[in-house]
Amino acid sequence: MDPATVFYTSWKPFSNMLLSTHKLYEAANLFDVVSRGDLVAIKLHVGELGNPNYIRPFFVKQVVDLVKERGGKPFLTDTSTYYLVARYNAVDHMDTAVANGFGFAPMIIADGLKGENSVAVASPDPILGRVEVAGAIHQADAMIVISHTKGHPLGGYGGAIKNLAMGCVSKQTKLRQHRTVGLELNSELCAGCGACVEACRFKFPRLENDRAVIDDPRCMHCPACSNACPEGAIKLVGKANLGSALAVSAAAVMSCFDRRKVAFVNFAVDISTLCDCLPLPGESLGPDIGVFAGSSPLSTDAATLRRIDYEKLNTLHHTDCWAQIHKLAQLNVPGSIDPKIIEV
User: Fold this and answer.
1) What is the pLDDT of residues 40-95, one digit of tens each?
2) Residue 301: helix, strand or coil by DSSP?
3) Mind giving me the DSSP string for 232-252?
4) Structural domains in the chain, sorted by start
5) Mean pLDDT computed over every residue of the chain
6) pLDDT digits (tens, 9 = 90+) for 214-263
7) Half-sphere exposure of 9 (CA within 13 A, CB side)
8) Are the beta carbons of 319 and 243 closer than 8 angstroms?
9) What is the C-alpha separation between 263 and 335, in angstroms, rounded?
10) How many C-beta atoms lie closer than 10 Å to residue 114's C-beta?
11) Integer Cα distance of 68 and 107 in angstroms
């Protein structure tokens, strides 16, 4: 597969989309990444319990079945979350996967029961210090990354790059990525109401002398406390840093594979302005677009961004959806920020 080319099929009314995706995968030679006997990681996000915006399971089963036809041994995989939701550990995560319809194939939580299974790999940029790739992903012979297109309050956009960068690494690497975004607390504006304490599932903010203090090194600088503050005393700054961190982490994950052994599928369907990580969806970004397939996370995400209303995401989240794309290109990951898009 040419890394600068992405194949695309539109979301067609009155069409069997399983037939459309099958034709798409054939045109893209998607399953050339699979050799007989390969242990093939099918990297996906199974959806947070209660949030309906995730890839329909029958599309993932189709990929699993086609890998088996090639003689591969597919397994579904993801890593557990840093924050406290229904995917925080392997048991809860697998229960969520089954509840959301993904009980048709072996499911391996790649970073272990409590996030203890990871392998440190070289980082291509000092922004993260190091990248700890989840053990089962590091050990896989090949990987097909299936991503749901959506917005993200810090990175602006989530697709193939984010699925690699956040979804394939340890909890500590997730934390380091998030903390590249700065958190500023203006104590003069703080009213000491405690809204930030209540908003944080970990209770990292605390009140001292009737003012909020947020200095716990375990705080991931998510927007929960800033969104909850009625006085606007808490602000997140440098959001573009997360885009760079995502690219660096994604490049490190890619370095664990021969590039001919990884493929990418982006579903630009049920596109929400918010990520799929919480048990509630954001508002719809717009109409369903279609499905993209390629051999490069750079090209696949660039092609996807060119077909969705990313300007709305930039405005809503006060960030740049393209930051992660441009940074990944600087890291010399094969692909193009202006890929050739072939419609199937």
Assistant:
1) 999 999 999 999 999 999 999 999 999 999 999 999 999 999 988 899 999 999 99
2) helix
3) --EEEE-THHHHHHHHHHHHH
4) 5-177+239-343 (3.40.50.11440), 182-237 (3.30.70.20)
5) 96
6) 999 999 999 999 999 999 999 999 999 999 999 999 999 999 999 999 99
7) 21
8) yes
9) 12
10) 13
11) 15
**Tokens 């490069």 sit on residue:** 296
Q: What is the pLDDT of residues 11-26, one digit of tens each?
A: 998 999 999 999 999 9
Q: How far is CA 193 from CA 37, 190, 234, in A?
A: 59, 8, 13
- What the block records as the tokens of 180 is 């590249």
Q: Which residue has the tokens 């060119």?
A: 306
Q: Which residues contact 72 (CB under 8 A, 6 or more apart)?
A: 31, 34, 35, 36, 37, 38, 39, 40, 142
Type of residue numbered 287: P
Residue with tokens 């291509």: 124
Token pair, residue 186, equals 């203006």
